[in-house]
Write a structure and sequence with these properties.
The complex is a heterodimer.
Chain A: H1 5-30, H2 50-54, H3 87-90, H4 100-112, E1 121-123, H5 126-129, H6 153-159, E2 173-177, H7 182-196, E3 204-207, H8 211-218, H9 225-242, E4 249-251, H10 254-258, H11 263-283, H12 288-291, E5 295-297, H13 306-327, H14 358-372, H15 393-409, H16 423-446, H17 449-454, H18 457-475, H19 504-524, H20 527-542, H21 549-557, H22 562-573
Parallel strand pairs in A: 1-2, 2-3, 4-5
Chain B: E1 8-13, H1 21-32, E2 36-39, H2 46-55, E3 60-65, H3 70-83, E4 91-95, H4 102-108, E5 112-114, H5 120-131
Parallel strand pairs in B: 1-2, 1-3, 3-4, 4-5
Helix pairs in contact in B: 2-3
The chains are: A mainly alpha, B alpha/beta.
Chain lengths: ~575, ~140
């Protein structure tokens, strides 16, 4: 119920009196020209309607929470929480290095500690992500670095060796951080399941597959945009037919935020990209309420101004619910929920290499505010994020414990959306909703996200924001503790031991071992069959209507490599950097 | 090298790493500092970059890398620059490079290494110092 007009008038008058009196006196006493702080009242929320703008958790417009009960809570501490609890230590968190053999051994070793956290969450190396074989000149030095190297189905078979019995493919969900080469990796999973006799409709997993944000922020795109989008369409249609329990896409705002987008840009661009994917699926003849449940969002990233981060998420929940209900005509309210995987509000870019333990403080603050809006209080990333590849087990332990303290000692998740009714946060939520909606409308006018990405506009907007932020850091307007302020010689750097979860010596010779394995398989496989499969892929690629995934499945079964398949596709589609 | 010419810098992304925020921001900071900057764009080979350095007659080559491939890239870049007769031009590197690898890179012949902890002021100053001799 909005405050009535007379009440608002009285508040405005009282405020004016306060500003002229108490506030001004305070400023005079302290010698201030500006008050330094602000204060919000019901007058800042004129027309605010609780039922319309906030509502109950788990109900439209979902401002107060995506679910009546945050889904991480009932599982907390039982090994299945996404944002903390036992998962961070015990589940197979996002990981990948070296060769398939190295990853297999990593999973076996982690499994010995009692892990029953689900399937692997695989980081792939850059050659795999960009469609080059490990022996390609461009891959030199990159094999097995930022993730595991996958050249052929044999690598996938090796990675999944520990996943048998009660961890069989029909009992786990995998996560693959892969974009341009998604459908080849998907084909490997299909081939693996078929070889093991697992019905495809039992497979669960999530490929990232968000190619649009690669063009603007992450940079592992390969093919021109229309061909890239066609590959995403293929994922949608193939999965709807053969892999009904597999997610098709994980739409990301976070990489754009990391690349410098403002919080409003990250949300608006992610939603604009989502709209483009959904229109693609609709155009392929799929029904909104049939494919939407199998789409998900990664997250929006974040920053240190956590009240604003909390508000932008509350706004995002509302914007997405309206897009689904009003723009796409979805009739199932479950599909109106913005499904976000992570909840950390501070993101990765605020982490500093200087005095790295400060990063633990930073992520804990973000997690506290995540808890207060009903998101999992993920203390993510572990504090040693800027120090190099692979979080140490000590940093992971500290992050896990911090989340546990937030939930179990502070009991911060016991109340849903403590900001509901806050004059400040509600007014900010309203402002962000408007800004997000306006920015999406602007992209609509350009012809949608595909056009906005293709023209370079979206990337340019992000770069401008990044430059502006950097300018403020360099000038000292934005303070980064230990970076551009408080850097005197008496400040000390506090470090604790860091034990890598990966074996350094294995990463060192991974490239050599991977190339030897690749050469062996190329010599031993039926090369005539591979050639025929590749030719069929080329032909299918030229037919815009064809779905390429069945051709990829045949090719990977013949042990064609990711690089060989992509070379054929590069030949047909062309390539963009 | 004619006197009074602006310092020319090539900023490059070598290999498959797609993170270009740092490279783009450093490029603009160098431009703001009055240098002429050529940015290669993503996913260049060592040959691409060294050829561009030759053609553009740059004074300094800067390579941004966040993928962990810095040692291999440094080794190849230095060898190629030498082979192409521009071994005298300083190669500097930036990105996510573990502290323990920095002495190694310098020993190999990389003139300067700038990680996340570097300010633009430092980078600009460094380039002025190593390349500014007879250029302004």
């Amino acid at each position: 119920m909005p405050a009535d007009k007379e009440e608002l008038k009285a508040i405005r008058e009282a405020r004016e009196k306060w500003e002229r009196g108490t506030l001004r006196k305070g400023m005079e006493r302290l010698g201030l020209k500006e008050p330094m702080v602000s204060f919000f009242t019901p007058a800042d929320l004129e027309g605010h309607d609780f039922l319309e703008n906030v509502g109950f958790p788990g109900e439209f417009p979902f401002t107060a929470g995506r679910h009546a009960i945050p889904i991480h809570l009932p599982f907390w501490g039982r090994g299945k929480t996404l944002g903390g609890g036992k998962t961070i230590r015990h589940a197979f968190g996002y990981a990948g290095y070296g060769t398939a053999e190295d990853m297999r051994d990593y999973y076996i070793e982690r499994g010995k500690t009692g892990v029953r956290g689900g399937g692997p969450n695989i980081a792939f190396d850059l050659p795999t992500q960009t469609g080059y074989d490990s022996d390609d000149e461009l891959a030199e030095g990159e094999v097995g670095r930022v993730g595991v190297a996958v050249d052929t189905l044999q690598d996938f078979e090796t990675i999944y060796e520990p996943f048998v019995g009660d961890m069989e493919l029909d009992r786990i969900a995998s996560n693959w951080t892969i974009n341009a080469t998604t459908n080849i990796i998907l084909a490997m999973y299909v081939a693996l399941a078929q070889k093991r006799g697992i019905p495809l409709d039992k497979l669960r997993g999530t490929p990232q597959n968000d190619i649009l944000k690669e063009f603007v922020a992450r940079g592992t795109h390969i093919f021109p945009i229309q061909h890239s989008m066609r590959m995403v369409r293929d994922t949608f249609t193939y999965c709807s037919e053969h892999l009904p329990n597999l997610n098709t896409i994980s739409i990301c705002g976070y990489h754009m935020r990391e690349a410098g987008a403002t919080r409003v840009q990250a949300v608006a661009f992610a939603f604009a990209n989502a709209i483009a994917y959904f229109e693609l699926a609709l155009g392929a003849g799929l029904e909104i309420d049939a494919f939407a449940p199998k789409t998900t969002f990664l997250n929006f990233g974040g920053g240190m101004e956590v009240l604003k981060e909390a508000a932008v998420r509350r706004a995002a929940r509302r914007v997405w619910a309206k897009i689904m209900r009003d723009r796409f005509g979805s009739r199932d309210p479950r599909n109106w929920i913005y499904k976000e995987l992570g909840g950390g509000l501070t993101g990765y870019w605020p982490m500093t290499i200087q005095r790295p333990l400060n990063n633990l403080v930073r992520v804990v603050i973000g997690a506290v505010f995540a808890a207060m809006i009903g998101e999992p209080p993920a203390c993510e990333p572990p504090y040693d994020e800027p120090l190099g590849l692979g979080h140490s087990i000590e940093a992971r332990q500290l992050a896990a414990d911090a989340s546990r303290i937030i939930v179990e000692e502070c009991k911060l998740c016991d109340v849903q959306d403590v900001f509901a009714g806050s004059y400040y946060v509600e007014s900010l939520t309203n402002r962000y909703e408007k800004e997000i909606v306006d920015l999406i409308a602007k992209i609509d006018e350009m012809g949608g996200a595909v056009k906005a990405v293709e023209s370079g506009w979206m990337k340019d907007q992000i770069i401008q924001s990044a430059r502006e932020y950097q300018r403020r850091v360099e000038s000292g307007e934005e303070v980064r503790v230990g970076v551009n302020k408080y850097t005197e010689p008496d400040e000390i750097e506090i470090r604790i031991p860091r034990t890598s979860p990966y074996k350094a010596e294995r990463r060192e010779d991974a490239e050599e071992r991977q190339i030897a394995k690749l050469r062996k398989i190329k010599a031993e496989r039926d090369n005539e069959k591979v050639r025929a499969c590749l030719e069929r892929i080329g032909n299918a690629a030229r037919d815009e209507k064809a779905n390429l995934i069945p051709f990829f499945v045949d090719a990977v079964k013949a042990y064609a490599t990711v690089g060989e398949i992509c070379r054929v596709l590069r030949g047909v589609f062309g390539e963009v950097h | 090298m004619e006197r009074g010419r602006k310092i020319r810098v090539l900023v490059a992304k070598v290999g498959l790493d797609g993170h270009d925020k740092g490279a783009i921001l450093v490029a603009s900071a160098l431009r703001d500092a009055g240098m002429e900057v050529i940015y290669t764009g993503l996913r260049r080979t060592v040959d691409d970059v060294v050829n561009a350095a030759l053609q553009e007659d740059v004074d300094v080559v800067g390579v941004s890398i966040l993928s962990g491939a810095h040692r291999k890239v440094a080794e190849k870049m230095l060898a190629r620059m030498k082979a192409q007769g521009i071994g005298d031009r300083p190669l500097i590197m930036g990105g996510v490079i573990p502290e323990e690898d920095i002495p190694l890179l310098k020993q190999m012949g990389v003139a300067g290494v700038f990680t996340q902890s570097a300010s633009f002021r430092e980078i600009v100053q460094f380039i002025h110092d190593i390349a500014g001799g007879n250029r302004k």
